[in-house]
Design goal:
Largest sheet: 4 strands, antiparallel
Structural class: alpha+beta
CATH class: Alpha Beta
CATH architecture: 2-Layer Sandwich
Strand content: 25-35%
Number of strands: 6
Order of helices and strands: EEEHEEHEH
Distance between the termini: 45 Å
Helix content: 25-40%
CATH topology: Alpha-Beta Plaits
Radius of gyration: 18 Å
CATH superfamily: Transposase IS200-like
Number of helices: 3
Shape: elongated
Length: 138
């Protein structure tokens, strides 16, 4: 696993942005096998690369997946999530037609909602204290 303290640089910025994403299947159905999860990781790595984003870690169970992504500030996290969910759903349903039996009404693999949490850096309390202690101009 990559060090969460790694700082990447862009043309006009330095950044270390990480997000923990969780996607849950529609109706929280238990549909994924190890084979599905392995293929899904490959698909999601490709989508992340297209966004100049690194998929640092991936894991999941039969009804949800966890991703740790390192992303540049130019990437809108909501757009990345939309692409990750859309592409993985479409490709998995194409490559594994057996998944379709779980979703005969809603032609979607994922629930519309997702979890996104920021990761890394100093705890909020430490950061608040640091900012509060900065010298103010007189």
């Amino acid at each position: 696993m990559a060090d969460l303290g790694d700082v990447r640089t862009g043309r006009h910025c330095a950044f270390a942005l990480h997000a923990h994403l969780v996607f849950v299947t529609k109706y929280r159905r238990r549909v994924f096998s190890d084979q599905h999860l392995k293929r899904m990781e490959d698909i999601m790595r490709t989508v992340c690369a297209d966004f100049d984003t690194e998929l640092v870690e991936f894991n999941g169970e039969d009804n949800h997946v966890h991703l740790l992504v390192n992303f540049p500030p130019k990437v809108a996290l909501a757009k990345l999530v939309n692409s990750l969910k859309g592409v993985s759903s479409r490709r998995l349903r194409q490559e594994f037609p057996d998944l379709g039996r779980h979703y005969y009404r809603a032609n979607r693999l994922w629930s519309a909602s997702y979890f996104a949490g920021s990761v890394g850096g100093a705890p909020l309390g430490v950061l608040l204290q640091y900012i509060e202690q900065q010298n103010r101009p007189a």
